[in-house]
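Standup notes
- DV: blocked on the single-chain target, sequence here:
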Amino acid sequence: MMAHEQHLVLGPAAPAAAPARPYAGLHRHRRWLVPLVALLLLAQMAAVMVTTAVQQSPTIDEPVYVATATDYLHEHRIRYNPEHPPLGKLLIEAGVAVADPRYDASYPGTQGDVGRHLLYESGNDPGRLMLWARLPVIVLTLLFGLIAFAFARDLTGTAGAVVALALYAFTPDLVAHGSLATLDMPVTGFVLTAVWLLWRARRRPRMYVPLAGVALGAAVATKMSALPAVPVLTGLAAVSVGVACAGAGRRRRVLTALAAAGGMALVAAAVVWVAYLVVDPRLRFSPAEPVPALHGPRGTLVDLLPLPSAYRAGMRVQFGLEDYPWQGYLFGHVYTGRRWYYLPVALLVKTPLGLLALGAAGAVAVVALRRLRAAAPYLLLPPAVLLAAAMTGSRDFGTRYALCVPVFLAVTAACCVPAGSPTGVPGRVPWPRRRWAAAVTAVLALWTAVSSLRTFPYYLPYANEAFGGPAQTHRLLHDSNVDWGQDLGRLADRLRRDDPGERVWLVYKGSGVPSYYGIRAADPRGVPPDRVHGLLVVSDSAVAKARGRLAELIASSHPVGDVGYSISLYRR
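- DV (later): unblocked, structure below
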C-alpha cells in the first residue's frame, strides 16, 4: 500500500481526471439494485397483507363471495350474487378449492345466509377458509404492483417506476382491500393493466390492443362498475392506433383506429361470455333471490347489451340497489341518499398526504410538459371517468368504489421524477434542480411509507395525518372506510385478556357470528337502559348512526377504549 501511494506521489503527472458523474455507482449496479428494491417493496406489501388477512375476521361482503365461489366449485351454476359477474369469484375459487370446505348446496336462504352457514355452521374453520380465499386477491394485488412499475417505467424511466411502486405498496387502502376476498382490487388492477397495454399499443398495436381488450373484459367480468371505462378505453385504443399509423393516409388511419376500437370492445365482450361459460357451459341461471324488473330507457338499454342473460339480470339488481334510500355518514352528519362530493372528500381523508402531493404534482407535470403530454389522457381520463361515475351512485359506503384514484395517482406521481436524473433521461433539467426535485420526491414517498407503517395492521380505518390518523376516522366516515366487521376476532381476544367474566352488551355490524369466537353478549337495545350494566361494545358504524335508545346508552356510558379503531368500548 505504501509503495503504491509513493508511486502516486512521485510518478509522472497523470492527465486530469474527467469530472465524476453523479450517481455513477448507481448506474453500474442498476441491473441488480432496481429489481432488489422492487422485490423488497413487494415483499413488505405481501407480508403486511398476509398478516392482515390472518388477523381479520370476515368482512361484510366476503362470506357472500366465498359462498358463491364455493357454489361455482361444487355446483357449476350461476345462483348467488348475480349483481357481480363471475370472474373475480372464479379467482377466489382457486383458493377455496385448496381449502376444500364442506358445503351444503341444498341450504335455503339468501346469499348472506349461505355465506354464514358455510363459514360457521358447516364444520369449516372460517379462519383457514378465509385465508385461502384471500390469497388469490393478495397475489393479484402484487402482480398489479408490477404493472404499475412497468407503466411508470415506460413513461419516465426506472427512477419513476420505483417511486410509483413504493407509493402503490404503501397506500393503506390498497393494502386493506388487496388483503380481502372482494372484487374492488381485482377490477381496479384489470383497468390499470388495460390502460398500460393501450399505452404500449402506440408502438405495437397488433399485439397490445387485443391484450388490452382481454384486460378490459376481465374488469367488466369482475365488477359492473367497470362498464363506464369501456367507451374511454376503446377511445384510447383508437388514439393509440392512430399514433401508430401516423404515416398512413388520413382516411386509412381513421378507419384503422375505429376498427381497433370496435375489435377491442368485441374482445372484451368475449371475455365476459367466457367467464360465464367457465362457471356453467350451459349458461343456466337460477337466482336464489328475485331479480327486480327494470322498465324505461334503462331496461331497454340493458336488454340490448350483447352479454349473457345472467349479466343483464345482475345489472337489473344493481339498478334496484341504486334506487334504494341508503343512509350515509360524512363528518358527523347522517343523511339519506347520496352526496355527490362524498367520494372526493373520503379520498382526501384516506389517501396518504405524500401520495396526494406527488400525484397532484405528477398530474400538473403530465399536462404541462411536452415530453409527457401524450400520456395525459391515459393517466387522467380513466380514473376521472370512473370516479365521476361512482359519484353518481347512491351507496356512499367507502373509497373502495374509487380505488382507481390512488392506483393511477401512484403511476402519475412517477412523472414528478425529473428527466435527466441518474436513472432517467439525461440532459433535460439542470442538475441542481434535478437534485432538489428528487429530494422532495423521496421525502414525500418516505412520508407515505411511514404513514402506512404506523397504521399497521389496521389498514381499513386509515386516515392521513391531516385528519387525525386512524383513531379519528370513525368520527368522519363509516362502513368500509372504518368498520366492515373485520375486528370480531380481535374483540374476542381483548375480552378474554382484559375483561374475563365481564357482562358484555354488543351492537355489532358485520357478517361474523360473535358466539363462534367465544363472545357471550346480549343486545342492549332490547332491554331498559337501567338494566344495561358492564361493558357496552358498539361497532363504530353503529356509533356513527346511533339514534334513540342506543344514542342514550352511549351518551350515558364512559368510553374505555377501542378494538382495531373500528369497535368502541364503554363502561356502564
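- Follow-up: The first strand starts at residue 327 and ends at 330.
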